[in-house]
From TrEMBL, chains A, B:
The lineage of its organism: Bacteria, Pseudomonadati, Pseudomonadota, Alphaproteobacteria, Rhodobacterales. Belongs to the trimethylamine methyltransferase family. This is Methyltransferase. One of its GO terms (biological process) is methylation. InterPro entries: MttB-like_sf (IPR038601), MTTB_MeTrfase (IPR010426). Keywords: Methyltransferase, Transferase. Its EC number is 2.1.1.-. It comes from the Bacteria. One of its GO terms (molecular function) is methyltransferase activity.
């Protein structure tokens, strides 16, 4: 017997009509995991990695290339020699224990609160691309107009709970001014909690100041509306620029994401377990430092990890070693009881083609099966991060809905009622007209829009469109329906004036 | 700090040279899982599903539309009313317990043995497509020449451990003669254990007879060289055609794969848990029947499951509900201690595009994270099974290698040696020239060939080829290098004569 589409029975008319009347999908709120994650290593093996990380911090030490941080570590009792801090395991563990296991992030729009915790799942689109692949497939350097367009797509896509800040680089704006314009579109075109830039004290302070114009200082003293990326410089270095940003964000009660930057076999050993031991040492030192700056700082334990092609030197996506690394990092983060971040939808393809799909879905499933809590780059990432693909952003927005449904597992609430249907239908029957089906099919199985399930002939008659073409149509529809979220005009004026004033104050030429 | 390719450090020359010298990948042998699988339901919840399945078999009953089977069930003490058998839980469980937890399958080639067990992973390409999507992208009805071509690609791809039989339908051959030609190419063009057809006694017997020509009857009495697909007719029906095939294969000591055919919300209730309860009832009845036919029959617990689009009635791939279903079925199969089968690389796209990639990788990762033991359709499946895409077959062959590496988890053997490298390199260094890297990078991170990791400019200079184009080049290279596996000329003549004789005996017109 052949397992193919030809065996599908046709659905009843009433069922089809009801399906068409399905409502618009609401934005994902807090997604709570029910699926129990994979375990890549045993409890003993996990302990061995944890101990190896502590030993690295103690014996090899870690560089904090920042005088303030070194002074703080000294005060805390660390053995500091030059820029190198040798951190005792007890000190690290006692600081890490101060990081909260969950916290809220709050946007200015209705129903935009999301809880980031050790058992939740939050999706955030890619950041940092110097190029975009536009809706028509054109690849070019990205501009502020592109960033605005991306923010509008994120605002209109229910699969993103949070903003990503610099989804692409606005290369048409002088580097010293970029953070102002990035922050402006994030606060104006989006109503979600979002990312603020952390590259040095002045920029971080500008971002906090702009967010305070919109949210108010008192509100932000109590609520996190921004998260900042604190990237490590592997192996075993934290640079001043990032540590400055960390301090500004932590002291303003905003979220810091501590992320060693792993290029497996290039800046870590050519071994998965040892790579984890090193990145965990780096992450623990960063998390501990955030708590040293301010106990209770809302911290996400992170990493960005790829393996590196020994042919071209380029980072590789969707690789099994990185999936395994994710599984172990998830086990470690649960041991430390801190929410953790990984990368989903990571792809290396130069086109939004099958490779891009394979790599992205592998990264998604690796992350969700490892119970990652903060999925960065879960939208648009292609070409190893060198492009933000707008069609892919919209496709990934839909994938996020599928992943959220998977993470949330199954419900037993309808089992007894459904078993009555089994009795009613019996051997050889079918369920299409059964009352249980009519009542529950809408919520039972998710129905994507961009993924296409037509038969070949239907699909061909409707134009034979590939996935990027369908995504483009979807994106154009979202942009056409986009309306800026309401913002008090005085706040908007103050934001605009802030950007104008800081542009006057900051030289547009790089120092 | 931006997480992108621009940060990649260039590799050392010695490292690159060593990479180029990497050897040809050997065929996967037995892949043993080390990653501990996801759990979708708790132990109590699993018990509830198991009990619901037994209750369905007892109270609702299941149709065996086959007089022999009904008589056997009566003898075994089942409550048979007409074609419906009401099966007691103890009877079912005692029969299911007779199914072995592992067994070998053996091909005629060197190193083609593979163990199918509750902790192993075996990859098998798709079967049953009525069309192919040829290397140049053309979609057309498939022929016996296509099937031969596919078998040659499988033979040349190290990611397939076993043959799939009717990878596509040879539509240019009369239906009553097809099984002869399908079996002929599987025995001649491949040297792997493979699939034999099970649609009725006569065809199944022909397939066994042909395999005996190649392997010898005595050898096959002790060793499994063929597996047969026994598809259920959900809800709750086993048809005579399939049961006849089951009996022939079980009595000849070959493997039977018991697979209910689930179209969620069409032939099962619109509820994931109840769908599992029903399909588990069907599978248990099938597995139990195989043991009733012959205790100890080598049985794979299976299912083919998709949800159904309520817009078009078409099956949907890569859906979260089916990933969840896989997780639960895996938990059940481990409870019963029987190897289980699911579908990997299931896609619905009408082109080998990004959709196909997303769907395929989602299905792969769902299967492997659920610790599936037999991954059917893990190669070539697209358009909901209506086409065998030859480029996708080759891509999936590579994906199988990645999935196998993931399933096998991590090793701690090199940890101490690698931590010495961490000490050597220290903060701010790099690992590219380190002795540990040079010694171990080859095995540390897998290096795919069809997935492309070049930078945009390199890729463009090399022709800017999309994934299907690169897969086509790979496929053409494999076909050019293909040489038929050696087969004793007298056996080949006997096989040819068997086909000729049976064509004389069987009317080419359908009864």
């Amino acid at each position: 017997m052949v397992e193919s589409a030809s065996k599908t029975k046709r659905l009843g008319r009433a069922t089809r009509r009801a399906a068409r009347e399905a409502e618009v999908t609401p934005r994902l709120s807090t997604v709570r995991y029910r699926v129990k994650p994979v375990e890549v290593v045993s409890a003993d093996e996990l302990d061995r990695i944890h101990c190896a990380s502590l030993k690295i911090l103690q014996e090899v030490g870690i560089d904090f290339r920042d005088e303030v941080a070194l002074a703080q570590w000294k005060v805390a009792g660390a053995d500091v020699r030059g820029q190198r801090a040798h951190l005792d395991g007890d000190l690290v563990e006692s600081l890490v224990a101060m990081a909260p296991e969950r916290f809220a992030m709050t946007g200015r729009g209705a129903d935009t609160d999301v809880e980031i915790g050790v058992d939740t799942l939050t999706f955030c689109a890619m950041q940092g691309a110097p190029n975009i692949r536009d809706l028509d497939g054109t690849r070019r350097a990205s501009t502020i107009a592109d960033l605005r367009k991306i923010n509008r797509l994120i605002q209109m896509s229910p699969g993103f709970q949070i903003g990503t800040g610099f989804a692409c680089e606005p290369t048409d704006i002088a580097v010293p001014w970029r953070h102002l314009h990035i922050m402006h579109t994030n606060l104006v075109d989006l109503d979600l909690a979002t990312n603020g830039l952390t590259t040095g004290t002045a920029r971080a302070e500008d971002c906090i100041a702009m967010a305070r114009i919109v949210y108010g200082r008192a509100f932000m003293d109590e609520n996190a509306v921004l998260w900042g990326m604190i990237s490590g410089n592997s192996p075993l270095v934290w640079d001043a620029t990032m540590l400055e940003g960390l301090r500004v964000f932590a002291l303003a009660n905003q979220v810091v994401l501590i992320a060693p930057f792993v290029l497996g076999a290039a800046n870590t050993p050519a071994d998965v377990v040892a790579t984890v031991a090193q990145l965990n040492a780096e992450a623990l030192a960063g998390v501990a430092y955030a708590q040293l700056v301010k106990p209770g700082t809302k911290t996400i334990y992170g990493q960005y990890s790829v393996s590196v092609s020994m042919k071209s030197g380029a980072p590789m996506s969707g690789m099994p070693e990185i999936s395994l690394l994710n599984g172990i990092v998830g086990q470690l983060a649960r041991r430390y009881n801190i929410p953790w971040r990984t990368t989903a939808s990571q792809a290396s393809s130069k086109l939004f083609d099958a490779q891009s799909g394979y790599e992205s879905a592998t990264a998604y499933m690796a992350a969700v099966n490892a119970r990652a809590n903060f999925l960065l780059h879960a939208g648009g990432w292609d070409e190893a991060g060198m492009v933000h693909c707008l069609n892919k952003l919209v496709v990934d927005g839909e994938q996020n809905l599928l992943m959220a449904k998977y993470a949330q597992g199954v419900s037993f609430d309808l089992l007894d009622e459904a078993l009555d249907a089994v009795r009613r239908v019996g051997p050889g029957g079918h369920y299409l007209g059964d009352p249980f089906t009519l009542k529950h099919f809408r919520n039972a199985f998710i129905a994507p829009e961009i993924l296409n399930y037509e038969a070949f002939e239907q699909w061909k008659a409707a134009g034979g469109k590939d996935m990027p073409s369908r995504a483009r149509e979807k994106a154009e529809d979202l942009l056409a329906r986009y309306a800026p979220p309401a913002l008090d005009s005085s706040k908007r004026e103050e934001l605009d004036a802030f950007v104008a004033r800081r542009e006057q104050e900051i030289s547009p030429n790089l120092a």
